[in-house]
Design goal:
With 180 residues, this protein is α+β, with helices and mostly antiparallel strands. The chain has a single domain (7-178), classed as 3-Layer(aba) Sandwich (Aminopeptidase). It is 32% helix and 27% strand. Strands 1, 2, 3, 4, 5, 6, 7 and 8 form an eight-stranded mixed β-sheet that branches. The radius of gyration is 16 Å and the shape is globular. The two termini are 27 Å apart. The structure holds coenzyme A. Residues 30, 33-34, 105-108, 112-119, 139, 143, 147-150, 152-153, 156 line the site of coenzyme A (COA). Coenzyme A binds at residues 30, 33-34, 105-108, 112-119, 139, 143, 147-150, 152-153, 156.
């Protein structure tokens, strides 16, 4: 990892096939933890369609000469539906300002898990978040309580637990980070 160079850039329309392969290649566990959809081509097409939309920024990672094979993606959402994170955080006594908050959802290809790739993506991601005028980061949809790797990763990045909630998928944890 330390001597591997990666390109880290915004998703482009040309990435449709690579994104479909990335989503199709995730293990069942990663898919369950991250977004769970089974229609990979449809999901990728939705992401391509949303390029440039006011509330979406999707970043992709690949070896500089292998744009056909994505190693990780970062999903940033700049809109916060009132009945999602704001309502949950309010129940913990935390007021989220939708003009200063971004929702964050990273996903690293299984082959790279535990090798520090997500950690390497964090500083440039926060730089983009700051450039877009946000200084508070919350997890998009929280993190599954049994996703121990992700919870440890977020804690190492400085996130703190704001509260817990339960969906049909089981218990989840909301975590928040105020950028310095
Ligand atoms: C969560 C995720 C983004 C982390 O990326 P990563 O590149 O594996 O993260 P890193 O290697 O930088 O850090 C992982 C940390 O978890 C630790 N870890 C690894 N396996 C673990 C496990 N089974 N249980 C607990 N901790 C674990 C590592 O030791 C490391 O912590 P440390 O640096 O303090 O030792 C990645 O694993 C992933 O994409 N998972 C599938 C999708 C997902 O869960 N996304 C998040 C949805 S909320």
């Amino acid at each position: 990892m330390a001597d591997t160079a990666f390109a880290f850039r915004a998703l482009q329309a040309e990435d449709a096939a690579a994104l479909t392969s990335f989503l199709a290649g995730l293990s069942d566990t990663s898919r369950r933890f991250w977004h769970g959809h089974a229609d990979h081509a449809g999901e990728a097409a939705g992401w391509i369609e949303a390029i440039g939309r006011y509330d979406k920024l999707r970043l992709v990672v690949h070896h500089p000469d292998r744009a056909d094979r994505l190693d990780a993606v970062v999903d940033l959402s700049f809109s916060l539906p009132a009945d999602a994170e704001p309502e949950r955080y309010a129940s913990y006594g935390i007021v989220l300002d939708p003009t200063r908050t971004v929702r964050f959802g990273p996903c690293v290809a299984d082959a790279w898990h535990g090798r520090g790739l997500a950690g390497a993506l964090v500083p440039p991601t926060w730089e983009a978040v700051r450039l877009l005028g946000r200084d508070r980061v919350v997890l998009f949809g929280g993190v599954h309580a049994d996703n121990h790797r992700a919870r440890r990763f977020y804690r190492r990045c400085g996130f703190t637990e704001a509260g817990t909630f339960t969906t049909s998928a089981g218990p989840s944890v909301d975590m928040v980070l105020d950028l310095p």
